[in-house]
């Protein structure tokens, strides 16, 4: 058989919180690049809408309703994905929530839930997906952190701590999983407008003031595709020498010094 006739089995990318916002753009970007896609999200309406969208565009996608903080739900997602799509090449840990409140009043339940979804959820999904990647001898994990892992507004302790934890988890897992051929990197988005990337029943048209735009040296607020493009780059072999890193994508917002 000549090389032309060798069938390459399509790669599989799995994305948490992939039904809306940045995750939706990530799912669409991987699907349009030839990956089969499996999305886990708590929002069923949004997830089913996304699967239709990818199908219409000629791609292949599946959705399962999963809370990433619940180990058994993630286990089921990974099991069903491997049954249906055959393998796991890429995991994008994107699901995230914020519950901000005055630091002196913030209920511990709120703190625990944010850490549970953002940090513990990232660990659960990475551990279970990496067991599948180990069977292939290669894989890539991309964790969505935040510039809030590096700097803060007041009263954002739970969210910032969860994102700082994700950066530490990224370098720790990069070191632990390197021997299995698995790379682990993080992306820290700045201000990304997601209003127009929600499910159709709640999507909105974004409006930004000149002041909003000028906070960014590039002169605009971020778009989900800015993050999706970087996820794809970090997942592919072109990034095979990059692991344990944090890529800040914020239009330069965090390098701009402000004297007022
Ligand atoms: P979004 O709210 O638009 O979308 C998040 C998606 O995750 C939703 O579909 C939601 O249903 C799902 N989700 C929420 N909790 C979940 C859970 N427990 N299990 C599974 N799915 C769950 O959010 P976004 O703005 O697109 O953010 C995506 C990621 O990017 C988050 O980790 C967020 O912290 C990070 N981030 C966003 C920005 C920004 O400006 N938008 C900036 C920095 C970091």
What's the short version?
This protein has 260 residues and is an alpha/beta fold.
What is the assigned CATH homologous superfamily? NAD(P)-binding Rossmann-like Domain
The CATH class assignment is: Alpha Beta
Mean pLDDT: 96
The total domain count is 1
Bound molecules: nicotinamide-adenine-dinucleotide
Strand % is 5-15%
> How would you sum up the major sheet?
7 strands, parallel
| CATH-derived architecture | 3-Layer(aba) Sandwich
What is the chain-wise order of helices and strands?
Answer: EHEHEHEHEHEHHE
The portion of residues assigned to helices is 40-55%
Number of helices: 7
CATH topology-level fold name: Rossmann fold
Contiguous low-pLDDT stretches (5 residues minimum) are: 1-6
User: What's the alpha carbon Rg, rounded to whole Å?
Assistant: 18 Å
Secondary structure category: alpha/beta
Strand adjacency order, main sheet? 3-2-1-4-5-6-7
> What is the CA-CA span between the terminal residues?
69 Å
CA-based shape: globular
Number of E-type strands:
7
